Amino acid sequence: MHETTRRFCCRAGFLLGCVLPTLLVAAWVGYQRTSWFQEREREAWRAALVRYLGVDVSLEAVTHPEPQVTRLEKVVLTDPETGRRLAAANRVELGREDDGWVAFLGDAEVPYAQLSRFEEIAQPLLWRRAGYGAPVWQVVVGSLQLTGGPAAHTLLDVRMFGETASGETAGGAAREAAGSSTHKATHKATDEDASPRVRIDFRLAGLEMREPARLVLTRRRDGDRPATDWEFETGPRALPAAVLSTVFPPLGELGDECQISGRCAFRRREGGWDGEAQARFAQVDLDRAITRRFPHKLSGIADVAVSRLRWRGGRVVEAAGAIESGGGVVSHSLLAAAASDATLQWSVPATVLDSSQPYWKYRQLSLAFELSAQGLQLTGHCQGAEPGTIIASADAALAREGSQPWLSAVAVVRWLAPQNEIQVPASLATEGLLRTLPLPPTVGGETAVASPPRPRLRLK
Question: Which of 208, 275, 306, 415 has the fewest C-beta atoms lying within 10 Å of its C-beta?
Fold first, then answer.
């Protein structure tokens, strides 16, 4: 080959192999930095998220800090029906990890008022992305703030995983299935019956938690209608009742200092909720739980241990546990109501029943309870008092268990609720009617018993 030809070939190769690719890369980098390209990419990501999530999405910018990592800035999810904000995050980073993907959210927030709506919209998406054969996925939230409630709470290290019903990640099950022909045949036969599961771990800011609290949602598809099983476990560290009351409001009536630990599993059916639980409620404010709701006075701080609790259709069918309080005040009306033959049939001293003293100080309240098909059984365990004492003062028993071993569960309603002139039978038939018809106000009850008597002023 002639020398001139060789020079031409070398120069052409240099231009085609070095200069031209460099110019193309530089042009592509410059093109990506133009506002027109960034706007198109931002709009493409927004439209993709709208189709994927089924809600309105807004975001400010899209960047790529690392290869195969996309960062979305200032992401806001909005309910398409109400226009209210469902969730927001300062940044969302999406990336690939092995055979699945992971999303990291920084400084996210969800309003308390939108939790139920957020769960309603998110569940169908979760079930499409969890279960056998789906790619491995997880969502990590560094800080999730619940806003708009009576108090703001922050969840840390929130991690959400897609799993199968056996507890393995979906991708792990898929890899195992690909390992042998035997596994392939087995999983092929059970693929349609697999129950997808979503596990959520989190810690609460301000608490030292060695292990995270855990919420597990399992989608059961073995019946005519799919149902969701909920399992919640606090771990060894108790959680404030104020935090859990955002999901189950009645827990807010247990007091600001109440701490709850244990586990709970439930499922929603056509007739209501079915479930079971084991829990311990520490620092329960009896004044807030009893006095504010019923026309009696009962104050003090109590610990309630529920060793067994089962309910069907929203109705408790079995329960067992104990209640302990180290002192407080009990009203005469509560003791007198408990001594009635129509209620708890407790043994209350005649000196207490005949007294005009409206309130009595007690040093200890201790009882064990058991509810079953036989009825309700209450057993007193006050220390330093005669056997069977449920409420004890400094020097005597204020109330002891009655001679009847098993009582009707309706006796508790008669004990706490005020007597009035309107009485109906306690049965399932009347319950259905009373849930439909308007109820009258309290009539003929001692509604002022819980308030201390006001002294009368006389002029002489």
Answer: 208
